[in-house]
C-alpha cells in the first residue's frame, strides 16, 4: 500500500502564511511551491477595506463644494473608474510573486525605487493611516459619550492609543489572517450601510440645487471634485501585495476584475450615499449631524461602523506601508516596519486631531495633493506591465546588488525617474487645493486637472523613453524575464513519497 507523507519543506513554507500567525514573508518574492488561493479572495479583501466611512465623507464634500446632486453622483462614478487601473496592477502579483514595491524596481532601478517607490509609498501610506486613525478615534470618543461615558482629562489620548493598536494588529499578522477576516468585516459593514441607506433615502432632498454658477466656475468645481474622488483609487499602487500568493498561471482577467470590483462597488455606493446625505444634513461633521435623520438607536451603530470601517481600511494600508518601509530598511522585518509606521501614524493623528484647527480642511487639501504624487506613479506602473507583457522575474527583482539586472545606471532607471518628476511637476502646477493653487489651474479659471494630466503624462513619457533608450532599445540588454518553464517546473515539483507497509 502506498501513501503520501507530508512534505516537511512544504509544511514549513505554509507556516509562513497561516491564519493567526505573523506572516514571515516580506518584500522577497513568493516561490511557486508556496502559492495558493483563488482570485475571488481578492474581491473580499478589497471590499472589506473599502466599505468605509471615508467615501461617505468624500461624497458629502462634493455637496459642500456646491455641486448639483446629479453632477456629484456622476463624479463619484467617473472618479472611481480609476479602480480599473488598480485591478490591472494586481496582475503583476501572480506573475512575479512579489509585492508592488519590489516590482517598482523594474521602473525606477534599485536606488531610484527607494525614493519614488518606497519613499513616496511610506509617505502616502502613513497619510492614509493617519486619516483612518483620526476618523476612528473621533467616532470612538463620540460613541463613549453617547452611552454616557465621560472621558477624564487626557482620556482622548488613551482612546487614540487603543484605536492605534486595533488599527495595526491585523496588518502585523499579514496575508492569511487578512484574507480570512475580510468576508466577515465586509458583511458586518455592509449591513450597517444598507440600514443607513434606508434612512438617508427617506430624508433626502431630491430637489436639492445650489445656486447656479458661471460655466467656467462650474467646470472648475467639477474637476476639483473629480480630483478628490480619484485620490482614493489612485492611492492604491499596491495591487500586487495581495495577489502575489496566487499561482503564476491564474487568470489575469479574474485577478483584475476581482480587485477592481472589490474597490469600485463600495466606493461608488457609499460615496453616492454620502452625496445624497449631503442634501439632508450638514456633512461638515456627519458623525454628529447624522442624528437628525436616523432614529436614536442607530446613532451608536453608525459610530461603531465608523470605528470598524476605519480599522479595516487601515489593515490593508498598514500591510502595504510595512512593505514600503521594509524596502527602505531591508534588514527589518515587515511586521516590525508595520508597527513602527503605525506608531508614527497614531502620534501624528493625535497632533492633527487635537492640536490643529480644522481636520476636514486638512483632509481635503491632503487628498487633493496626494493625486499629484500617486497618479503618475500608478500610471507608470500600469504602462510598464503593458510594455513588459507582465513578465517579471521575482528572483531578479530581489537582487539589489550593484550590477544586478535592475541596477541599470548607478541604481537608477532614467526613464522612470524622468517620467515621474515631469508628471508630478505638471500635476502640482495643475492642482487647486485650499493650501496651494498651481499656475496652470489659475490660468484655467481654477480647474484642477491634476488627476488627469499626472497619470497621462506619467504613462506617456515613460513609454516613450522606455522604447527609445537602453536597455530596452536593445533586446539583448534587457533584464531577464521570468521563464514560464522554470515557474511551471517549480510548481510541479513532486512531493516526497515513501512506501509504508499495508
From TrEMBL:
Belongs to the purine-cytosine permease (2.A.39) family. The chain crosses the membrane at residues 43-67, 73-95, 115-145, 157-181, 188-207, 219-242, 254-281, 301-324, 336-355, 367-387, 407-429, 449-468. Its main location: membrane. Residues 1-33 are annotated as: Disordered. The lineage of its organism: Bacteria, Bacillati, Actinomycetota, Actinomycetes, Micrococcales. It is a multi-pass membrane protein. Residues 11-33 have a biased composition (Basic and acidic residues). It is found in: Membrane. Keywords: Membrane, Transmembrane, Transmembrane helix, Transport. This is Allantoin permease.
